[in-house]
Design brief:
- It is a single chain.
- The protein is mainly beta and about 400 residues long.
- It is about 5% helix and about 45% strand.
- A four-stranded antiparallel β-sheet has the order 1-27-26-25, with no helix packed on it.
- Strand 15 and strand 16 form a beta hairpin.
Length: about 400
């Protein structure tokens, strides 16, 4: 009798706590929180090398540094007062910044001091990327708004002008290897090199969109974002690109991927998008801001930072939280038993065609995923997780739905 009463009480407490956790988890589904700084001008670039150490750069030569994941940000100004547009660190002490009016500077002490490198009169750099301590590329525009590229093979001691065709301003660059790089820019133009930046070619997608950001998760799989919600994907190292549906019309300014399938894009008016299936579905996360967002960096699947207008810095420790179900159409299904202990059955009101079932814990971490390729009426799932509250989400083309699931 005693054991039975204790079991009932334990289950009751477990259910009550799970309901509260689920309510909190769903109502606050997107876990992006603002970090505090005294800087109030625009921040244009951000880079972290681990969960603690990072840098943010922006207007008026600003360089901010944190050693505790953004709990505290301190000023580490460059030697200029012009806008700094991008930052790239290869390790905990060695990094580069670049920006307007000729600026490329290097640090070897985590940004305490910055050393100017080659000067380029009348040039404006928008992006810089180092594949190693020696090999790097910087891109931007000249005083007339045309593409401008420089490369280095000695860590920036000297920057060389490569051979490249005339084109529009370049906004973002990424190196896929020591020999291959891709830069994207205005009017749908994509520049690429396969010989360490010595020679570049240009391809145009013949679209009205300008591209603001590029990210590759591996040498084959890459993504581009730009104006009016444009997203393009390549699966052949940038040789060809196909469009994806972002379901937004705001300008997208930056993109990052931590794997071939998991990535985020950020843009104007506080826009944050996330995908877990390689861009088949892009879903909104709640930024809790209307500021324009310009740059994003993740160090793993959970820990990320975003910077934007008016000194805005956002941070997440759970990948940005759960997806906002209310923004999508509903797939009707039921879960039984619920609560359950080992297995549960998911049943669909109508056949479920070619989609994915995902389960997230109360902290937004994905604990289960299964994709179905044929019509399905029901399925038994052995979750194999500890007791607690979970969210089951079902994705099918343009539809998604979610329900609470309690594990006893």
């Amino acid at each position: 009798m005693y054991n039975s009463q204790c079991t009932i009480k334990r289950i009751s407490r477990s259910v009550a706590l799970c309901i509260m956790h689920c309510a909190l988890c769903i109502s606050c589904s997107a876990q992006w929180t603002a970090q505090t700084t005294t800087f109030t001008l625009d921040l244009k670039g951000v880079d972290f090398i681990d969960v603690n150490k990072g840098w943010a750069v922006g207007a008026a030569g600003a360089v901010l540094f944190t050693g505790d994941g953004g709990l505290n940000w301190m000023n580490r100004h460059s030697t200029v007062s012009t806008n700094i547009n991008a930052v790239d660190f290869r390790d905990s002490v060695t990094g580069w910044i670049t920006g307007d009016n000729e600026v490329i500077q290097k640090t070897t002490n985590a940004g305490v001091f910055w050393t100017p490198q080659d000067a380029f009169a009348g040039k404006f750099f928008n992006s810089i990327y180092f594949f190693s301590a020696n090999e790097g590329v910087a891109v931007g525009k000249d005083g007339f708004g045309f593409a401008f590229i420089r490369r280095t093979t000695n860590g920036g001691t000297s920057w060389i002008e490569p051979v490249y065709p005339s084109g529009n301003a370049l906004n973002s660059v990424v190196m896929l290897s020591s020999s291959k790089a891709i830069a994207v820019g205005n009017n749908g133009e994509i520049f690429s090199t396969t010989n360490s930046g010595a020679n570049w070619t240009v391809q145009s997608l013949s679209i009205a969109s300008s591209f603001h950001g590029v990210s590759f998760s591996n040498p084959d799989t890459g993504y581009i974002v730009g104006t009016q919600g444009a997203i393009y994907k390549s699966v052949d190292g940038g040789s060809s690109w196909f469009s994806q549906n972002s379901k937004v019309t705001t300008n997208l300014n930056a993109v990052t991927f931590i794997s071939a399938n998991k990535g985020w894009a950020v843009g104007d008016a506080g826009t944050i998008l996330v995908t877990a299936d390689g861009g088949v579905n892009w879903l909104k996360q709640n930024s809790n801001t209307i500021e324009n967002l310009y740059s994003i960096k993740f160090v793993d699947q959970n820990n990320g930072w975003i910077v934007g207008a008016n000194g805005k810095i956002l941070n997440t420790a759970n990948g940005g939280g759960l997806i906002n179900v209310s923004e999508r159409n509903v797939v009707a299904f039921s879960l039984s038993p619920n609560p359950f202990r080992d297995k549960f059955v998911i049943k669909f009101q109508r056949p479920f065609y070619s989609g994915t079932v995902k389960v997230f814990d109360a902290y937004g971490q994905e604990v289960f995923s299964k994709t179905y390729y044929t019509a399905l009426a029901e399925d038994e799932i052995n979750l194999g997780v500890s007791s607690g509250c979970y969210l089951v989400q079902v994705f099918n083309d343009e539809q998604v739905s979610g329900q609470k699931l309690i594990v006893d």
